[in-house]
Amino acid sequence: MTDNHSLRSVLVDLDRTLYPPATGLQEAGDRLINEWMTESLGLSSLEVDLLRRQLRDQYGTTARGLEEKYGIPQSKTYEQSIERLRPADYVWPRPQVRKILLSVGLPVYVFTNSTRPYCEQVLEALGLEDCFAGLVTIETMGWQAKPQKEAYQAALKVAGTEPQQTLFLDDSVANLEAAARMGLPAVLCHPRPKPHWAPCISDILRLPELLAVLTPEN
Question: Which of 81, 102, 158, 215: disulfide with 33, CB 3.0–4.6 Å?
């Protein structure tokens, strides 16, 4: 997968990676996006839900799809959807994750398709706001979302490491596939392994075990 001694940084997705998928936070965000799309486009709830999924799959994020197809600025979509959420209503502090991130021995960066205000709120709710070397958000990526190549290039620039030196964890196989094509060691972080993708860890709590395999001592 990678040279066992080459890892220099870690990129970690935010939603459903730093916290378990079943919290309901992402689904709450999807509902707000649906409401915003219904208001903006005048479509039915069923039409909007299908369109949201199509735009997300085609463009990486619904917000980018709305900008490309309907001219709605991405920042406006985020303001009217996920930035209205209260993450603390859905996620809770994870002291064990905090301990791991502060002792892992490599700089760890959040790498998310979300905006910085939302990212900061989620990290605060998780008690992880001071655990990262930096945040790579949709603004940092020039509004080019994963799995677009430009998103990974922006993240690597922030981390200051080469692709093969940069471990990437995400819950999206599409994002992992794009990263792997660029040479990043890419690991699925999800409680249920997905077909045709390995390796996989069930939770970010397994990061030390993963690093022990990838970077054994001499």
Answer: 81
Closest CA to 14 of 173, 193, 189: 189
Instruction: Evaluate whether 1 touches 163 at the Cβ level (below 8 Å).
Output: no
Asked if residue 29 lies in contact with residue 78, where contact means CB atoms within 8 angstroms, the answer is: no
Out of 128-142, 162-176, 189-203, least confident range: 189-203
Which superfamily does 9-20+91-214 belong to? HAD superfamily/HAD-like (3.40.50.1000)
Give mean pLDDT, residues 190-210.
90
Supply the DSSP symbol for 185.
-
What CATH number does the domain located at 25-84 have? 1.10.150.450
The residue with tokens 């959040």 is: 110
